[in-house]
Specification:
By secondary structure, this protein is α+β, with helices and mostly antiparallel strands. The chain is about 45% helix and about 15% strand.
């Protein structure tokens, strides 16, 4: 499979089969964008999430505390700077 798609929990047989179908598009379960339009895609059992949706979720969890630490803010700034 493409380096842009990371499969979680895939068994060896499924992984080998998926590698043969490397031209297949994988869509984010949240924003519906294909793996060709995002930085990375994580594939789980029955669900996919792109790197941008994952960072939105992380950002929400960090900002839910209302005051992110300097380290957390640096991570968010670094990611969103590369995503644009």
């Amino acid at each position: 499979m493409s380096e842009k798609v990371v499969k979680l929990g895939a068994k060896r047989e499924k992984k080998e089969k998926a590698e043969k179908q490397n031209d297949d598009l994988v869509y984010c379960s949240f924003c519906k964008r294909p793996n060709t339009q995002v930085i990375k895609m994580v594939q789980g059992p029955g669900v996919n999430i792109c790197s941008e949706c994952a960072m939105i979720a992380v950002q929400y969890l960090i900002l839910n505390d209302r005051m992110p630490s300097a380290e957390a803010q640096a991570i968010l700034d670094a990611f969103w700077g590369k995503a644009r």
